[in-house]
Amino acid sequence: MPAQSIPLAAPAATSLLWLWGPVLLVICINPLIQLFAGKPPVTAAFASWGPLLVLPLITAGLTLAYRRRHLQLDARRLKIASTLYSKQVPISAMRLDRARVVDFDENPGFKPALKTNGFQMPGFRAGHFRMKDGSKGFCLITDNHRVLVLPLRDGSSVLLSPEQPRALLEELKRLADNLPRA
């Protein structure tokens, strides 16, 4: 079976405001303070104009990382890529009998509790997290209302927001049934 791309749920349109809003605010504060103090808002010193250049470049890089997210499924594994993180999960490592689709509003116990190495904004999580029970989780969550929770045999879990989580779960179960038994 060739790898097929699995569409992800679209994140909220305002997600990037949580990234760009604070940066633009920080960029504007010092020049405004200088202006109200009767001084020129920007001088020739790098300390004056450097942040006006560096912060938007860093934020643009983070925006590009935010836009990198995809799921691919082949006959043996699920490949997840998001922001600066990626993971390949063999279907045989999944405990599909315990997998479920959840809404964090209705089931807050499944919500990641602590970011250990990840990228997080309201409504978007990518990377490595600790779950409320202390276990590890790898997340690519773009919609808190449709999250596919895939427990793994090693005690960790994978949390994803595909456009159609139930269809992905059924496809994973179908592929697991076709795997050769060891």
UniProtKB/TrEMBL annotation:
Pfam families, sorted: bPH_5
UniProt keyword list: Membrane, Transmembrane, Transmembrane helix
Organism expressing this protein natively: Stenotrophomonas pictorum JCM 9942
Segments passing through the bilayer: 12-33, 45-66
Domain Bacterial Pleckstrin homology as annotated: residue spans: 73-175
Protein name per its UniProtKB record: Bacterial Pleckstrin homology domain-containing protein
